[in-house]
Design a protein that fits this description.
Elements lengths: L4 H5 L5 E4 L5 H13 L7 E6 L4 H12 L2 E8 L2 E7 L6 H14 L6 E6 L2 E6 L2 E5 L14 H23 L6 E10 L2 H4 L9 E11 L4 H13 L2 H6 L5 E7 L1
Parallel strand pairs: 1-2, 9-10
Antiparallel strand pairs: 2-4, 3-4, 5-6, 6-7, 8-9
Helix pairs in contact: 2-4, 5-7
Length: about 250
């Protein structure tokens, strides 16, 4: 049975954590289970969230695993959720390590076909998108080049993750914009006109954040974002990446 807002507001949670704007399919459930390990049976976990879909997804998940969903305070876009750890859910603690192992072994699978001149189509999960040639120097093209997809994926992974980490840290950020520039070591080698290195020689990333929050805290979260970003962690091993962080 769910408690009223007034009753929930008077609760003293055993543990509180912020899920930011993560949804239940993007790792939030794993974070809930990890934090629930720190709560004794009968204790209460408070989870804060900015993601509207959690309102519908959290109650059935609690019923499925055996936790008691007590209710929420606030709006769907900024809510405090309360969960009581039930005796019946103790098996969740044991299952968590198994699921974390499964997560470590997860593979992303992609299939690609050449579907037109200077075009391939990429298929992954329920998505498909067209990619042009490896590198293009035209002002306009039918499809983005592979280099643009790579640079765009790197940039988007950082902006999305940074916004999420700021939300989890309770930092109000009005806007996050990242510009990314990259250059080939020898574009003529890519075109087959010279011998040389056809790889990317360097990547420049500038992050612009609009916020009234403390500069040191914003920078701290930016560094944490970089430390945990898969594409950045991979590319920096092979290519010099120049970073600039600006609060405007």
């Amino acid at each position: 049975m769910m408690a009223s807002g007034q009753d929930l507001d008077s609760l003293m949670p055993d543990r509180v954590f912020d899920g930011g704007d993560l949804d239940c399919g993007s790792g939030l459930v794993l974070l809930i289970r990890e934090n629930m390990q720190q709560v004794k049976v009968g204790g209460i976990l408070e989870m804060r969230s900015l993601e509207p879909s959690v309102c519908e997804d959290l109650p059935p998940w609690c019923r499925m695993v055996g936790h008691d969903y007590l209710g929420m305070i606030g709006s769907r876009n900024q809510a405090r959720y309360f969960i009581r750890k039930n005796e019946a859910a103790k098996a969740e603690d044991a299952n968590l390590e198994t699921d974390k192992k499964r997560a470590r072994e997860y593979e992303w699978r992609i299939r690609t076909r050449a579907t037109a001149p200077l075009q391939s189509t990429v298929y992954c999960r329920n998505f498909s998108f067209n990619v042009g040639q490896a590198a293009s120097f035209e002002e306009k093209d039918k499809n983005p080049s592979a280099i643009e997809y790579l640079a765009g994926a790197l940039s988007a992974s950082l902006s999305t993750a940074y916004a999420t980490e700021c939300a989890k840290a309770g930092l109000k950020v009005d806007d996050v914009e990242i510009t990314t520039r990259c250059k080939l070591d020898n574009v003529l080698a890519h075109l087959g006109l010279e011998e040389g290195d056809a790889g990317i020689s360097n990547i420049d990333i500038k992050c612009f954040v609009t916020s009234m929050e403390d500069m040191a805290e914003l920078k701290k979260v930016w560094q944490e974002t970089l430390d945990r970003a898969p594409l950045y962690a991979t590319l920096k091993k092979a290519v010099p990446i120049n970073l600039k962080f600006n609060v405007v």
